[in-house]
Prior knowledge:
Elements: E1 9-11, H1 17-23, E2 30-36, E3 41-44, H2 49-58, E4 66-72, E5 78-79, H3 100-113
Amino acid sequence: MYNRLMSVVFIQDKATPKDILKAQEDYGKYIKIVVDIGKNLMVIGGEWHADGEKVLLEKGADSKNVWGGGIDLDTKNIDTVALINLRPKQSNFSQEILDKKVRARFVKIVKEKFNL
């Protein structure tokens, strides 16, 4: 499902080539990613991670399970850095996902959705 205002793509199963192409509209070979690690849902694309976060929250995500990062399509490098990750109440005092289990879950879901 595409957001009519920006290049945000909701991914329930796997990201298709069409989904990836749409998500590339803002930053080319780098795609911002937001994942609901509780429900295995993902949003790709958009100018800000908050764009994807909004979509997931509208779909019933619990904000404590929504984390951001990105992927470089050339290198397939997945990062776990986003402003939405700053969560003092969850002891995440960085834009990086600090909790190793949360970070591993985020990366696992991204790899599954991108068939990596």
